[in-house]
Amino acid sequence: MTAQDIEPFFATLKAANPTPVTELEYTSVFELLAAVLLSAQATDVGVNKATRRLFPLAPTPAAMLDLGLPRLQDSIKTIGLYRTKARNLFETCRLLVERHAGQVPRTREALEALPGVGRKTANVVLNTAFGEATMAVDTHIFRVSNRTGLAPGKNPLTVETGLLQRVPPAYLVDAHHWLILHGRYVCVARTPRCWECAVARWCDHQPKTPAPGAQRRHP
Q1: Are 179 and 140 contacting, i.e. CB atoms less than 8 angstroms apart?
Q2: Does residue 211 lie in a domain region?
Q3: How far is CA 109 from CA 85, 113, 173, 187, 217, in A?
Q4: Which in 4, 139, 148, 170 has the greatest CB count within 10 A?
Q5: Count of domains in the chain?
Q6: pLDDT of res. 74
Q7: Mean pLDDT, to the nearest integer, of 47-62?
Q8: Which of 73, 66, 79 is nearest to 24 (CA)?
Q9: What are phi and psi of 81, to 5 degrees?
Q10: How confident is the model at residue 215 (pLDDT cuts 50, 70, 90)?
């Protein structure tokens, strides 16, 4: 993807979805942090099912501590790796109460000091909750960035760096949402849906996937 392709690529994604948002359900910065922490190697749909049970019981770090680890585990047991995630979330709540007066910190360093919170989770919180121009590279963004030629890289950090350099500033705050949704629903892993892709003309991927039934069988 050339530098000239990037502006119309994102302009098209923006036109289709002017105000993209995460598909994780939350009503506070703490709930967003908890949901993202729980979402590692899990779907947003699965996380939302669990947090619909959990958040009414424990909407704050202090309430989560009062709930107790066994009940926390029981509330999220439908999510993969739930025991480890519950321990990390419980310890994170303890640190939020002890070090941050129950509030989610607004710096990368403080976020990444919380158990279970890595660079990607910190980027999501900084972007979605605080409006910072960060790029949380998940499996969808990694795939789309490499497949389209937008920001090729062998690891998430390389892709993140490339995206921050190549995405125009006007699109940077929302770019990670557009790319995730594009990878989740159009530029899917096994067979990208090129025939219905609005940005296919600027994408390096070849050959483009034809629409089902478009290929004729030869005798």
Answers
A1: yes
A2: no
A3: 20, 6, 20, 33, 58
A4: 148
A5: 2
A6: 95
A7: 97
A8: 79
A9: 60, 35
A10: low
Which residue type, as a one-letter code, is found at position 184? R
Q: Is the peptide bond before 207 cis (omega within 30 degrees of 0)?
A: yes
Together in a domain, 33 and 124: yes
How many whole angstroms separate alpha carbon 139 and alpha carbon 156? 9
Which residue bears the tokens 């557009």? 178
Q: Which two tokens stand for residue 138?
A: 């998940």
* 41 found inside a domain: yes
Confidence of residue 212 (pLDDT cuts 50, 70, 90): confident
**3-state secondary structure (DSSP) of residue 145:** helix
Q: Which two tokens stand for residue 70?
A: 């066994």
Answer whether 57's CB lies under 8 Å from 71's CB.
yes
The residues annotated as belonging to the active site are: 120, 138
Range of the domain at 59: 29-128
CA distance 141 to 37: 18
pLDDT in tens, 138-173: 999 999 999 999 999 999 999 999 999 999 999 999
Domain shared by 64 and 148, yes or no: no
**Does the structure show a pLDDT above 50 at 218?**
no
pTM: 0.90
Centre a 10 Å sphere on the Cβ of residue 84 and count the other Cβ atoms it contains: 12
- Cβ proximity of 178 and 14 under 8 Å: yes
- Percent of the chain, pLDDT > 90? 95
Copy the structure tokens of residue 127. Answer: 């972007």
